[in-house]
Every structure is written in C-alpha cells, then in structure tokens.
Amino acid sequence: TIPVDDNEYLIYGSGKNIVRMSKSKLEQECLVGSQSDVIRVIRMCGLLISSEASGELRIWERGTTISILSTSIVARYMDTLNTSLVIAGKCTKLGSSYNSVALWSLSDPLNPIEICKGSTDQQIKDLVVISKREPLEFATGGDRGVRIWRTRHRNHLRSAAVNLGTQSTSVVNSISFYNNFIFAGTKNGALLQIDPEKMTLVSIHQLLYNHKPHEVTAILARDYLLVGTSDGLLRSWSNGYEKVSFELDLGYKIAKLVPTENENEILVVSDAKSIGLLDVAKEGYRTLARFHRSRILFCDFNGDLIATASRSDVRVWNCNNSTLVQLLELELSQQLT
Predict the structure, then answer these.
(1) Distance from CA of residue 326 to its chain's centroid?
(2) pLDDT computed for residue 310 by the predictor
(3) Which residues does residue 117 pair with via DSSP β-bridges, in sequence order?
C-alpha cells in the first residue's frame, strides 16, 4: 500500500499486516490483527488508522487496536482534518455500487462519530485537504476532472466540479495542494494549476516527449513540482515549468509521491512494488522496501527463519522479530519456474 512517514520509520500495509520499518536499518516489525487486506494507512494525532478491504477502519495506539469503525466505504483514499478523518472510495449498498466520501470525528478515538457523508458520479483516484478551518474543504480528482468538497453547518457535505474548460473530461490521476493552489496531473499528460477559491483553471502545461503525451501518474507540489509519469521517469520542475532541475529514470510507472517530515525527502511508490526515498536537495534515491513481484512459488521454514521465493526473488525472514534478513534478486536467466 501507499506508505506513511513516521519520522525514522516507514509504515505500510502488506496483506493483512501493517509493517513498521526502520529507514536506516531496514528492519521490520509487524502489527497483526487486521481481518482483511490492509489497503491504506495514515497517521493522526499520535494514532495510526488503517483501512481494510472489508470496509472497516481500524484505529491503533502503540501497536494495539483500540477502536473499529464499520463503514460501507472501502476507503482507498484518506486524509486528516484536525481531529477529523476524511475517507473516499467505493460504497456498496443493496447490490448497487457508487463512489462516496465521508467525514468522521475522532476527537474521542474510542467513540468515533460519522459527521457527514456524500456521494458522487466521479470515479475518485486521489484526495487532498485544502482547508482545515471552517468550512472544512478538500478536493478529489478522478474520471471527471476535479471536485471541491465543503462542509456546511458541520454536518452537511456539498461538492462542485471545477471548470477546467477543455480539460473538464480529463481523467485526473493525482492532485496536490500547496501555497493556495491545487496542482493536478492527468492521463493525457497535462499539468493543471487550479484556484480552489475561484473554482477556476489558472494554467495548463502539456507534457510532450517525442511529440507524444505521457500520462501523469503522480504529482507533489512544493517550491518545486515533482512529477511522475507512466514511463517511469521522475522529474522536478520549477513552478513556472521553465526547466527540469533533475530527472530520474526508475524504470517503472510512478504510482504515488508521499511527503515526509523532512521537506527534502519524498517517498516514491512504483509499480515495481517497491518504496524508495528521494532526497530532492541531493538528487539522490535509494530503495527502502521491495516486495515479491509475482506469486510465491516456494516456502520453507526451519523454526526461526522462513524462506519464500517467487520467479524474480528469494527472501529470508526472521520469524522472531518479523525482520527481512536477506533479499536475493534473480537475473532473467536465473528466474524460477
């Protein structure tokens, strides 16, 4: 799943487990107790919140489940609004399926309360908080451009589509908010800058390489604009799009860019099922975690260690502390069948 930064640790979901890994030592420990696959994790006010494929939200404190929220939404997208949690995803009810968002109050983590809920015909692909002051605001990107959501009287949720002109029907894969503007990346290779207060498109920049548009799959706005594309290239643009300050070829589609406590360090999630750490200031990159790239073909256990193998790699785990001890990546000629 998409990781969350926790100072010196990295937290992410893996199957029915939540993994907490040291960035420096790459040692891992697991939080167990989830009843279905963990699809998203987020930190909030000293708590850890995980979303499960069953539609449950689980609240953790110091490695222990303290509360479970039963929702009808499979929350693939989550963000925090002060002591509130906003979630978005598919909602299935009475045999029908639609896209929905909801706002929950976690001021008392032991007694979560759903404040308001709304539905949309937009197939949501990303979510970002705009304002944490009343009225609370957030934005969603998806198959029908960008929508701005606002709370009214605290217990009502309303949304409206941003007028994107010729880009109104574009599929927005990723959105980011910085310095009062929304930045969005589209499937047809456009970078959009949006004024959420005026609900208007400020600027548009088309990414063309060899005269062909490249799908923007991840975007993160800071004093620079970090853009990941479907061809596996990660580029840092100046905010005026005048130049690319650096470019990295990761070889696989960039799925998500996640900020950390350090403004110069960005977590990079790729379709290679790996998580890496990008140092923007030093223009350096290192891989933090790799996952099996295909189904497991072999498993062996000797009491303390367990070995698993897929076609492309072999992993040895210490069962006593859930630590990955050794990773062997296989060349094409060595791959198992």
Answers:
(1) 27
(2) 66
(3) 102
Is residue 35 within 8 Å of residue 22, measured between CB atoms? no
- In three-state secondary structure terms, 166 is helix
- Structure token pair of residue 296: 């497991």
- Please give the distance of CA 19 from its chain centroid, rounded to a whole number: 15
Q: Residue 153 CB: number of other CB atoms within 10 A?
A: 8
Whole-angstrom distance between the N-terminal and C-terminal Cα of the chain? Answer: 27
CA dist 18 and 208 (Å) reads 39
Residues 46-77 as b/e (b if ≥16 CB within 10 A, e otherwise) read: ebbbbbbbebbbbbbeeeeeebebebebbbbb
pLDDT in tens, 1-60: 788 888 888 898 888 888 888 888 877 788 888 888 899 999 888 889 999 988 889 999
DSSP states of 233-296 as a string?
A: EEEEEETTSS-EEEEEE-SS-EEEEEE-SSTTEEEEEETTTEEEEEETTTTEEEEEEE--SS--
